[in-house]
Amino acid sequence: MTIPLIDRFRDRLPVSAATPVVSLGEGSTPLLPMPRLSERWGVELWVKWEGANPTGSYKDRGMTVAVSKAIEEGAKALICASTGNTSGSAAAYAARAGIPAVVLMPQGAVAGGKVAQTRMYGATVLEVRGSFDAAYAVARELVARGTHALVNSLNPYRLEGQKTAVHEIVEELGGAPEAFAIPYGGGGNTRAYALAFRELGLTSRLVSAQAADRANTLATAIRITDPVHAQYFSETPAEVVTVTDEQIVDAWLELASAEGLFCEPSSAAGLAAVKAGAATGRVVCTVTGHGLKDPTNAERHAPAPIVVAPDPDAILAASLPE
Question: Looking at residues 6-12, what average pLDDT do you find?
């Protein structure tokens, strides 16, 4: 039986015996060596595969704690603004808890797989005319009226849950790597990792990789022009590294074709930074979301299928390397 994340890390989380555990079996995700990419990039590369979480992203770690505490505190509904992964996670955990969820998305700016996923969980999905930042501002106004519990990453319980990825990595490796590399959208996960660094006394580097063009990057999960956690970065050991969309796509495709892991484009930002030389030695990249979150970009960038006749010779000719 899968142990809920809250139960596994109960002594390191702000929960009590009175906290109802709202769980979908999150956490305990694979930590995988990347032998081919390690050889190519000149590092000892490991990937924390967060796409294996119940809704396909790392957000589930924080959401189980945030929703469990919201229920404990008497919340009757949840709300979030989202570029996709938070929406799917919030909707799933709201359904699990038996309460409604309202999700605000910037119109036309969220990957189709994430929109479909959120709708399937039964959340009320509202597309806001404007950016993520506009949607988030509205969500906070509604929270101030006392009608909903906010489950975006400014909710401190989200960070508490997300820090557990670092605890798992250190436990599984038998010690800390020289560096951690993660994508940087709103900055919540960077703060969560920094929280775990303090708890564990780590001196590792923390590389936080952002898109060069935050407003228009194809990596929609980190398409946030005004990161809400940026003001707190001086309190963290984070080193912000900027990568282009071309670098993100190259690392994204290489991870899939060389190592068999299919993530969404934004999840490859940390990998792109490592490939560009931002970290050395033993490095753990957290790959934050599954590739099926964004099938449109996968179809656009993956090698196209080849049409052949139903003939063995034609198939061999098309499939053998030149």
Answer: 97
